[in-house]
Amino acid sequence: MKQIYRACKKCKLITTEKNCPIHGEEKTSAEWFGFIIITEPRLSAIANRAEILEPGSYAIKVRQ
Ligand SMILES: [Zn+2]
Q1: pLDDT of residue 35
Q2: d(CA 17, ligand 1 centre) in Å
Q3: Which CATH number goes with the domain that contains 38?
């Protein structure tokens, strides 16, 4: 079975889960575009601007 990658509507974290592993209650969306990989959130200007605290892959845009 093909795995579908989804993105959290709140933090944009990319996951295969239907709910965000960080936010729990927050539903993820299968409709998202582009992604960035953050390995050192505290050293990344992009992560800082997007308020990303956890390392991982994040979508650039998530359709609500
Ligand atoms: Zn989230």
Answers
A1: 92
A2: 11
A3: 2.20.28.90
